[in-house]
Design brief:
This protein has about 70 residues and is α+β, with helices and mostly antiparallel strands. It contains 2 helices and 4 strands, in the order βαβββα. The strands form 2 sheets. The chain has a two-stranded parallel sheet. Helix 1 links the parallel strand 1 and strand 2. The longest helix is centred in the middle third of the chain and has 9 residues. The termini are far apart.
């Protein structure tokens, strides 16, 4: 896929600097207020077939909980 439009501002992990990363509120903020060109996020499927939006494989970095996501 190719586009003639150049991406100048990418919100990595949904733009989680001012708000909690990978949340709908953050996506709305970076899209509406910061006018990013692209929002990058991570989506995974758990073993019980639930879709989650989380960058890490565990909860330690964001929540201080040493528990893996599966």
């Amino acid at each position: 896929w190719q586009s003639s439009r150049q991406i100048k501002l990418n919100a990595h992990r949904g733009g989680g600097i001012e708000y909690i990363e990978n949340t709908l509120g953050t996506f709305k903020h970076v899209w509406d207020d910061l006018e990013v060109d692209m929002i990058e996020t991570d989506v995974a499927l758990t073993k019980d077939q639930q879709v989650i939006v989380l960058h890490d494989a565990d909860l330690e970095r964001l929540f201080g909980i040493k528990k893996r996501i599966s």
